[in-house]
């Protein structure tokens, strides 16, 4: 397992390193949610069949009333948000036959969980 934790760090969520890909959109949202500091954790591991990514934070969590909308295109709670980040993440993950979900507890934080099947090498030789 690869794991990295950032605590109370001043990270620019608009940096080039945080464009909409499964690991960066979740981390950008987490950093923006933890206005007063907190812990951002990123863990990647394999289970033999899939690559599993967990981006978590200790922010305020997501209101259960809107949790079902967070993957909808153009849904946002941010003044300057486009509402496209998580919908793009879902599309990318879907295109790789994966799964993405969010687990959030108000007052405790949020985890974005991504599972993508591991690629398999194609056998060499003529097609049968």
Summarize the structure.
The protein is α+β, with helices and mostly antiparallel strands and 128 residues long. It has helices spanning 22-33, 85-95, and strands at 2-7, 39-46, 50-57, 99-105, 109-117.
CATH class: Alpha Beta
Specify the helix fraction band.
10-25%
User: Could you spell the SSE succession in H and E letters?
Assistant: EHEEHEE
Number of domains: 1
Largest sheet: 5 strands, antiparallel
What is the mean predicted local confidence, pLDDT? 79
What is the number of beta strands?
Answer: 5
Distance between termini? 37 Å
Radius of gyration: 16 Å
**Assembly state of the chains shown:** single chain
- What is the tally of helical segments? 2
Structural class: alpha+beta
CATH superfamily: Histidine kinase-like ATPase, C-terminal domain
Which helices and strands, and how do they pair?
Elements: E1 2-7, H1 22-33, E2 39-46, E3 50-57, H2 85-95, E4 99-105, E5 109-117
Antiparallel strand pairs: 1-2, 2-3, 3-5, 4-5
Task: Describe this structure as you would to a colleague.
The protein has 128 residues and is α+β, with helices and mostly antiparallel strands. The protein has a single domain, classed as Heat Shock Protein 90 (2-Layer Sandwich). Helices cover 18% and strands 30% of the residues. The chain contains two helices and five strands, in the order E-H-E-E-H-E-E. The protein has helices at residues 22-33, 85-95, and strands spanning 2-7, 39-46, 50-57, 99-105, 109-117. The protein has a five-stranded antiparallel beta sheet. Strand 4 (99-105) and strand 5 (109-117) form a beta hairpin. Mean pLDDT is 79; it is low at 8-21.
């Amino acid at each position: 397992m690869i794991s990295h934790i950032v605590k109370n760090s001043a990270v620019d969520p608009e940096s080039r390193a945080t464009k909409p890909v499964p690991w960066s959109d979740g981390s950008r949202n987490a950093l923006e949610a933890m206005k007063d500091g907190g812990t951002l954790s990123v863990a990647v591991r394999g289970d033999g069949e899939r690559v599993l990514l967990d981006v978590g934070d200790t922010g305020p969590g997501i209101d259960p009333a809107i949790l079902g909308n967070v993957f909808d295109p153009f849904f946002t709670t941010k003044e300057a948000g486009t509402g496209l980040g998580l919908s793009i993440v879902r599309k990318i993950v879907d295109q790789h036959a994966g799964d993405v979900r969010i687990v959030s507890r108000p007052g405790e934080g949020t985890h974005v969980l991504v599972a993508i099947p591991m690629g398999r090498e194609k056998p060499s030789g003529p097609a049968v």
